[in-house]
Amino acid sequence: MSIDFKDISVVIQGPVQAYQGRSQEPGITHKCIASIRTHLPGATIILSTWEGQDCHGLNPDILLLNKDPGATIVSYNAKGEPGKLNFNRQIVSSAEGLKQVTTPYAVKIRSDNFLTSNDFVAAQQAFPARNDASKLFTQKVVTNTSYFRRYADGQKIVMLPSDFFHFGLTEDLLKIWDIPLFPDREFDPTKAGSPQYRGAPKVGPHAEQIYCNAWLRKLDSTVPYLQHRHQNSPELLAYWERFIASNLVVLEPEQIGLGLIQRFIPKSKRPNEICHQDWLLLYKQYCDPSIAISKFDIFKTIGWKRMCKLPFSYIKHQLTQIKK
């Protein structure tokens, strides 16, 4: 079944100007909108941003000026100074935009990314096999390998998908983004003088892990609360890999047709990130044994780099923990 572009809405979420803590390439949101008009003619464009943002010259079909929830306090350092991340800004701009969608399919894209093709539309249905016991989405959701990490500090980790780009059924994207806002972390005076954050004194989860853990626990009550970055077990890793194979289609940016601004483009593929071949191997293992992919195929591209770099990353992390 082919998907007609008129059955797709594109939610562009985030700021269209720089603000404190978030730089912005001038004119990038104009470029994003123009690229959608070029590569998805007939699709509905929804720009979901903040009150006070200068949207002059932008021409989305729907413009949402959300009330800015502000940055979220997620930590305190030893001096009691708060650390903030844009958790709720991303949730509000994504979820409120998706709630305006009336088409069966939707794209969620950052306001500082853009399209270079529409290849992701066909790719969404190119891998139909599922592991029935692991299905949490109605259909597959296409996502991006950039910042989709399989390793951190030389160790395999779980629940760290990229949040740059999603394409799939609107109902499935809402499963990811329509989650409760995160409350500010309250300062605990009994822990004054020590860092306070989720998982302390172990290494805290990455922001993407915290997002993913929240929506995955909403979909499946058996998923544990992720206390720290490296929390893992053979059972949890297998669960995460089955989920990836059965519910996602993980593609390189060029396979999606996703354009990234310069600061997101590495000089070479990062060994700690998933690659499309990694995902294909999981898809073969859990969904479709007929897929032609092997571990040696991965070794020839990114595997040998991992063998060289990951052990050093692990040793460096262990030494850092000892110094603490």
UniProtKB/TrEMBL annotation:
Q: Name the InterPro entries for this protein.
A: WavE
- What this protein is called in its record is WavE lipopolysaccharide synthesis family protein
